[in-house]
Amino acid sequence: MDASEQIDQLIAGITDWRGETFARVRKTILEADPEIVEEWKWMGSPVWSRDGILAVANAHKGKVKLTFDYGARLPDPAKLFNAGLEGNQRRAIDFFEGDKVDAPALQALVRAAVEFNQLKSKKKASR
Questions:
Q1: Which of 17, 23, 77, 90 is the most exposed place for a label (fewest CB within 10 A)?
Q2: What CA–CA distance (Å, rounded) separates 25 from 46?
Q3: Contacts of 98 (CB under 8 A, 6+ apart)
Q4: Total-model pTM
Q5: Sheet arrangement for strand 45-49
Q6: How far apart are CA 100 and CA 84, in angstroms?
């Protein structure tokens, strides 16, 4: 089973509002950039990558958490980040029951993460 199938299976197994939210978050991420790759890491975490990890999602009791690997370095004009704000690297969005997924703002954040990864890769290559 490939990563996308494993993520499909994970989402199908979440039968409450978190499954629907997870599916909307996933769809929004994938629509942000056609070259984003889905991966399955760390014994069951959906990961989205392009030129490095962009974000990891998990369904927890009472929330869906989307953590951006380099979120502390990303512009967030829509103020989506609401968790992990004290960290130097990662930032997260916790979605709670009834929260709406702001697709345009989330896609802008995903595109900023792609751009960050690409700039980081170019810097490494030029060394």
A1: 77
A2: 11
A3: 17
A4: 0.94
A5: 37-41, 45-49, 53-60, 63-68, 91-95
A6: 20
Residues spanned by the domain of 92: 3-125
Amino acid at 114: V
Contacts of 87 (CB under 8 A, 6+ apart): 72
User: Do residues 32 and 111 make contact, with C-beta atoms less than 8 angstroms apart?
Assistant: yes
- How many folded domains does the chain comprise? 1
Q: Identify the CATH number of the domain in which residue 74 sits.
A: 3.90.1150.200
Place of tokens 């991420």: 29
For 19-68, write each residue's pLDDT tens digit. Answer: 999 999 999 999 999 999 999 998 889 999 999 999 999 999 999 999 99
